[in-house]
Amino acid sequence: MHDIDTNAPPKSNVPEFSVGELAFSLKKTLEDNFGRVRVRGELSRISIAGSGHMYSSLKDDNAVIDAVCWKGNLNKLSLRPEEGLEVICIGKISSYPKSSKYQLIIESMELAGEGALLKMLEDRRKRLEGEGLFSQERKKPLPFLPKTIGVVTSPTGAVIRDILHRLADRMPSHVLVWPVIVQGDGAANQITNAINGFNAIDGSSLPRPDILIVARGGGSLEDLMAFNEENVVRAAAESKIPIISAVGHETDTTLIDYAADLRAPTPTGAAEMAVPVRANLLAQILDNEKRLINATSRILSDSLNKLDAQSRGLGDPEKLLTMKAQSLDHASDKLGLSFGSFLSTKREQLISRASRLRDPKDAIKNAHTRLERWSEQLKSAAPTITQKRSQNLDHLGKMLDAYSFKKTLERGYAVIRSTEGKPIITASDAKNHAALNIEFQNNEIISVQTGNTAAPQTPTPKKKKPSQKDDKAQTSLF
Question: Treating both helix axes as pointing N-terminal to C-terminal, what angle do 114-130 and 230-238 enclose, rounded to 10 degrees?
Fold first, then answer.
């Protein structure tokens, strides 16, 4: 017999879950019961993560639910999620176990109504207009007569047939068609690629279009949404080739109409804007030709009348020429006579001057003879001339030596100079110097002090035998 613990808590038949088991069980329950739902609400708190997934919320006046759109589905959405946009999202309800929050996994998205769609388009238009994509400065003029026309449209609809038919009626042209789908998923990307593709043609393999027509037939606002996408609008605004937008009927307006260089009410109207009427051009050419001929004839007639009026004031050209011809004959006769006389005079002068000329050989021979005679005379006279000049030179040398002051010094005289080497001639000059140099024969020089600061006294020279080693001696004269 076992004892029963009456204090133990009673056991429950409720199953026990871990936190993770309960969270994943709730997740599975939500996904099983709400596998596909349509939820209408306003987008808010849109955030694109680095992985490419979009996290946002859907709200109305009563509640808010988190929403997630994975990267793969986000790229396939038919519209671009924007803050405050009222949409209808299709997907499933799930939860995020780690935060115990349920959320809507978005698989597709559409606008909740035409009003919301119009609001989104108006906001987009204002934003792109603020960037300057619709400014008139960006508009390019259309060529008057394009050689090649590029058309971006569906290849199977009535639009391309209308365009080709109208071009053939007005002005047959070379047409390049870039086939695209004009509505639904991928339409905007195909239209963008077509516009960029035409601009990328370099003209080597295909002719580069001179003008582009982007066209499609009429439809609802949703059908025309591809031509409201931002990538299509930007491609049209950045196109180097002028673009005519012809989307829908005359009352339909899309954003590409603002970015294009010209908007046509219909695709047929776009063809009419692209080329002129050939018959009108021919008629205009014929009219211009006629006017040109008439104007030329009128100018020629007026010129002839003026010529006749001016010719009446002139003399008879034949008579004028006859008189001038006669004058020319008289002048030519005088010229012939004068020229003959001139030649005779010059001939006589030439003969006279030629007779005075001598043969250069004779002149050279005579000059050579004179040169030899002068050379012999110079040789005979040279000794006499040089001897006489030498005797004169010796005589002058002796006279110079005799009159030299050195000879005077040898006879017992002396030369007195200042210390600067200037000769002293008078006693007053000697008193103006404090010292003097006295030169004797054999270049013997002594220096003496004059003592010019005191009264002059009779000099008492001291006798000193000069020596060869000491040419200069110091003494005083006063």
Answer: 30
pLDDT at position 476 is 40
pLDDT at position 3: 56
Q: What's the CA angle centered on 14, arms 13 and 15, to 5 degrees?
A: 110
Q: Are 133 and 233 in contact (CB under 8 A)?
A: yes
Q: Coil, helix or strand for 40?
A: strand
Q: What is the pLDDT of residue 454?
A: 43
Rounded to 5°, the CA angle 180-181-187 comes to 100
Rounded-to-integer distance, Cα 218 and Cα 268, Å? 12
d(CA 191, CA 235): 9
Q: If we measure between CA atoms, which residue out of 167, 169, 135, 170 comes closest to residue 149?
A: 167
* DSSP annotation of 51: T
**Per-residue model confidence (pLDDT) at position 237:** 92
Residue 114 has a pLDDT of 63
φ/ψ of 196, rounded to 5, equals -65, -35
Q: Are 446 and 438 in contact (CB under 8 A)?
A: yes
Q: In whole angstroms, what is the distance from residue 255 CA to residue 224 CA? A: 10
CA 466 to chain centre: 99
Q: Which residue has the tokens 């339909």?
A: 252
Report the DSSP beta bridge partners of residue 89: 39, 109
- In angstroms, rounded to a whole number, what is the distance separating the alpha carbons of residues 264 and 256? 11
Residue 388 has phi, psi (to 5 degrees) of -65, -40
Tokens 């024969």 found at: 441
Residue in the structure block whose two tokens are 């086939």: 179
**Long-range contacts formed by 402-411: CB under 8 A, 24+ apart:** 406/441, 409/439, 409/440, 409/441, 410/441
Q: CA nearest 108: which of 92, 85, 96, 126?
A: 92
Q: How far apart are CA 96 and CA 65, in angstroms?
A: 13
**DSSP tag of 183:** S
Closest CA to 128 of 228, 213, 222, 245: 228
Gap between the Cα atoms of 274 and 264, Å rounded? 10
Residue ranges for the chain with pLDDT beneath 50:
1, 454-478
> What is the amino acid identity at position 28?
K
CB 434 within 8 A of CB 427: no
What local confidence, expressed as pLDDT, does residue 244 receive? 94
Domains of the chain: 19-112 (2.40.50.140), 148-275 (3.40.50.261), 408-476 (no CATH)
What angle separates helix 230-238 from helix 187-200, to the nearest 10 degrees? 10
